[in-house]
Amino acid sequence: MWKRANLNRFFVALLLTAVGFATGILGFMTIEGYNFLDAVYMTMITISTVGFGELHPLSAAGRLFVSVYIFFNLLVIAYLVSVLTTYIFDGELRTIFKMFKTDQEIRGYHDHVIVCGFGRNGSKAYHELRANGARVVVVEQNQELLRDESGAGTIPTVVGDATTDETLLAAGIHRARALITALPKDADNVFVALTARELNPGLKIIARASLKTSESKLLRAGADSVVMPDEIGGSHMANLVMRPEVIRFLEMMNGLGPNKLRLEELSYREIRREWQGLSIRELDIRSRTGATVIGLKQSTGEFIVSPSADTRPVAGDVLLVLGTEEQIQALAVQFRV
């Protein structure tokens, strides 16, 4: 929605110009008795200050009106020129076209992820999603946060308040598959979750919380999961003391460090037909790709860690596979439809 751009000054300048033009026509018709076409002509030569003569000598009231009218229009024209100069030379016009282009692009998105807030947590979520090939739309009020982003390329962005219906609709919430709300205030995240759930009942909603007391409110508002970065950070630091190697392994799984690992899902419906119905042993994922099956989420919702090699995945099951980037790519080539 390119109208979100800061067009207020431009519209005000156009409105003042239109009011000035209408005032001139009305004044010349009322004070001097001109017909409409003559009044338009006199208004134009007065506004433009070209110096052409009057159609007939002005009365005292007419001269007073023209004197005030010229002064008023000099101010209006100066304001209009300054606004146009700003839009042309300061890049605001380019920003409007960029927003219009972005809006057109977002309208074509389906099954994308909406990230509300582009602070520390929101920007991290955005880059992680993009690294995994997801389409992402960012909702952010503070454009400075987006300008400060270096080397990120063009970020599909809706500039506005994420708590409003209009902004979320502009982000394509009806077509999105998930929403992450990482706004600084817990109350805002509660409102976003509530609004998003109402607009798209099937949406997966992940919310950030600073206070433990906000977790239950976010879940009641419609969030599927609540993440508390401060609590996770404290636990992480404590485990670095007590279980440092476990944490380093988890960091590798999160893509940190030189030896990056990736944890991937392989749902039953994604498996090629010729591999469906086989046991984990018969799939032989380790030998074929180098990746390892470390878990299985059954259709009932139960998780099985290190499932037996004789387990046969069925419809609704999801295999959890761990491997390097190359091994996960080999998994996709060998087993995915």
Automatic annotation (TrEMBL):
Transmembrane residue ranges: 64-89
Domain RCK N-terminal: 110-228
Gene Ontology biological process terms, A to Z: potassium ion transport
A GO molecular function held by the record: monoatomic cation transmembrane transporter activity
Localization of this protein: Cell membrane
Domain of life per record: Bacteria
Main location (coarse class): membrane
RCK C-terminal domain location: 251-337
Membrane topology recorded in Swiss-Prot or TrEMBL: Multi-pass membrane protein
Keywords: Ion channel, Ion transport, Membrane, Transmembrane, Transmembrane helix, Transport
Gene Ontology cellular component annotations, sorted alphabetically: plasma membrane
Name the UniProt record assigns to this protein: Potassium channel protein
Organism name: Hymenobacter metallicola
